[in-house]
Amino acid sequence: MMHAIRMHTTRRFSGRVRRLSAWAGSVALMATVVVAGPAAVPARATQGDLACEGQFTMAMSPALKPGGSASVNVSATLASCTSPDGNYPQLQSATGQASGTATSSGTGKGPCGVLFTAQGTGTLTWSDKSTSTIAFTVNTDPTNGTVTFHCVITGGAMNNDGDTVVPVISNAQCCPGGLQSMSAHMAVDFA
Length: 191
What we know:
By secondary structure, the protein is an alpha+beta fold. It contains 2 helices and 9 strands. The chain has a 9-stranded antiparallel beta sheet, with no helix packed on it. Strand 6 and strand 7 (162-165) form a beta hairpin. Helix 1 (2-10) runs antiparallel to helix 2 (15-36).
């Protein structure tokens, strides 16, 4: 999205109209995300060290209800990884495990009607058997910022690389007590 905005604002033909058009388009896109939830197609960050297709499942215990909190356990897979800059061609896939906490700020257009923020830490084990420690944040509450999944590598392979993406929620398990689990997929570019 930012690349498109820069492209419009750097052109000099009717500069003010183009800037206004880019701004209005950005506002419309953000409003769509807030009202409709995550985008239908995963967003990609600027290419960096490693690009992968990612999937994660987050389980809540107890089920997360509006205004409540829960422990979270996350399992993740990264597949079809490529190294655009050539620094990590040996990292072709990974599995991951993480844990943390989730806090709901209320109801809305989040999974099962629950708006929440979750944070935690975990480990990725790469196809070459190397590991990376990670810290993650998932935010489905637009009042707490952009609806995103953010992951940063805190140690091991690709230390200090990270990405922030808009996940596509593919499954949410709801119960009368709230959100039990959710799954999502995304395109990830660690840079």
